[in-house]
Write a structure and sequence with these properties.
The chain has one domain. It is mainly α. It is globular, with a radius of gyration of 17 Å.
């Protein structure tokens, strides 16, 4: 265990990882999303994909207690349940792909997913069709694949909710609840594969401290009357993270 502690403090780019997760906590606290979109591109500069996926999902689970009680009472639990069950089936596919793609290719996937999500939201794309059970299953399934491959658990569902006409409060609650469920599914799969060791667990625990605190700060700042301001602040932070995480700027750890 002392060796694991030493390895955690020697993690490449630890200061940047702490800053990224702290900022991500604020954004998630007042919007309900953004953690992985902010943290994963930055972490990709320093860490291997399997470490990133383990750390971001463990950190998400550790911090959920700060946001879940309110989200549970406000979310459409039936809808979130369908999304989560679909993701449960496809997460192993994403993890299988992660083990077969090289880290630079995965970083490009992260950048592409982040950029597409951000562009769709900024341009104001709106889905006006009917959302039935088949579409919910498809959205949850795609989120599971991308989450298992990259650690980006939220973009598919974020795009689905924020591109629609739901109220900010409902979007925030549903997203928090689904991301919590998906984090649990991914971690369970990683544990079954023996892919989470002491170093990953301790790094996640270390990052969870600032993330928990800043999530509470962000939640206290949330006010439905300022929905537009929150969205554009989140877009700016996500855009900066995506650009900074492009493989052209640095090599993976």
């Amino acid at each position: 265990m002392p060796e694991a502690f030493s390895a955690v403090w020697a993690t490449p780019g630890l200061v940047w990882l702490l800053l990224a997760i702290g900022l991500a906590g604020i954004v998630r606290g007042f919007t309900g999303f953004g953690t992985a979109l902010i943290f994963v591109p930055v972490a990709g500069i320093f860490l291997r994909p399997e470490i990133i996926v383990g750390v971001i999902t463990l950190t998400g689970i550790a911090s959920t207690s700060a946001l879940l009680p309110r989200a549970w009472s406000q979310a459409d639990r039936r809808e979130v349940g369908i999304l989560a069950l679909a993701a449960l089936v496809t997460v192993p596919i994403g993890l299988w792909l992660m083990g077969r793609l090289d880290p630079v290719s995965i970083r490009w996937v992260v950048a592409a997913v982040g950029a597409i999500t951000l562009a769709a939201l900024i341009t104001g794309w709106r889905f006006s069709g009917q959302v039935g059970r088949p579409m919910l299953v498809a959205i949850g399934a795609l989120a599971g694949v991308i989450g298992g491959l990259t650690g980006l658990t939220g973009p598919v569902v974020i795009l689905f909710y924020l591109a629609g006409q739901s109220a900010a409060q409902s979007v925030r609650a549903n997203t928090i609840l689904f991301l919590a469920a998906l984090d649990v599914v991914i971690v369970a799969n990683l544990l079954l594969r023996g892919a989470i060791n002491g170093q990953i667990f301790l790094l996640a625990l270390l990052l969870a401290v600032p993330y928990f605190i800043t999530s509470l700060i962000g939640q206290s700042l949330f006010d439905p009357r300022h929905e537009r301001l929150y969205r554009w602040a989140a877009y700016a932070v996500i855009g900066l993270a995506v650009v900074s995480g492009l493989p052209i700027w640095g090599k993976e750890g």
